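Researcher: Batch entry, complex prediction.
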Amino acid sequence: MMFVVLVLIQVLIFNQVHFGGFLNPFIYVLFILLLPLSLPRYAVLLLSFLLGITIDWFSNSPGLHASATVLMGFFRSPVVNLISLKESDQSDFPGLQQTGWRWFLTYAAILVIIHHFFLFYIEVFSFENFFRTLLRSIASSMFTVGIIVLSQFIIFRE
Amino acid sequence: MRNLFRFILQNHVFLLFLLLEIVSFIFIFNFNRYQKSSFLNTSGRITGMIYESYSKVEDFFRLPAANRQLAEENARLRMLLGVSSTTPTLPDSLLLRRTGGENQYRYIAAHVISTTVSRQQNFITLDKGLNDGIRPDMGIVTVGGVAGIITHVSPSFSTGLSLLNTRWNVSAKLARNNYFGSLVWDGTDYRRALLNEIPFHVELAVGDTIVTSGYSTFFPEGILLGTVESFEKEGGDNFYNIRVRLSVDFKSLSWVEVIENTRKSEIDNITQLNSGNDKLD
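Model: Structure tokens for the complex:
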């Protein structure tokens, strides 16, 4: 359900958002962020792939988003282990309310950055204009994280 | 054998990760090699329908701008005809006969239901397809000039490369002295593109108009592309670096016309004949 909603929000609204052809937020990754932590890793990977390929289907970019989401899905559990210092930090459902804002922000930021960097560099497919792409990734990542945090206040309140 | 199974079981996450990445990259590379990969799918039925219903809502808010554009275009066309808006006139039969009884180019109006400007490869999806006479390799133009070219067609939708696509270029020329080159988009700014292959001896000025050359069968000659914004000579090269300000605003693309060249097959046949002869020599 959330899958469908996020994909639609992404392709219909956020794919149209671009400031000066520069900033594109990809908020659909929220789906991967919010998967329960107890979910087996292979399931996370498969769902990530499914999500990526669906977005690709809508944006004429076969494999591009899929490769980035799979990478993100793969790094999810190492990142969770890395930033959860105390056992008590871990709640099964990641979220601003459930796990505390500091934990969630670090978690979201690291994974979004991984995803965006990979995505933008694969899209350009060269290190030409290296700094331009770098700036694009950083700016878009910040924007995405901002929207993800906002969405936590607006929609997923229960 | 048992060790192999144990290895797979222990590393199943990593192996699955590798497998999925490899699949993704196969998609990416196939697409790179050959643009007409069957994956291109915004002209597909489901995605087409979703985009269409959404764009209907979006259009409502663009009506004032669309009206203004149409009115401007009407005015321009009337000026070309040289008639006042109140007196209806019969079409000039002489004009028709000059091109051999029928026009070489036919225009099909279509509506853009999805487009992007911020990717490296941008596409345009239209709400008309096979049933409306749209075929691959037809040009897409709008009020401001060239917008793109059709690549995929389904019964009622079609997808095309936008001019803002790093894998495509247009044969262009300078309107005032007919020197031609190719216009490419470098993937940085949706308002600007580069004009290549213009040699140093050509006279240039900022503000010169750039139009289609008519050497490709996609567009008729003389459709506006943009104006020269800046140019410079770079050492070690025989050609100018020309920055072009595009005349089409790709962000507000909404109504377009698809150009059908009724003699395309004839032209293609005869050019093929030439390239065939080259191989024989």
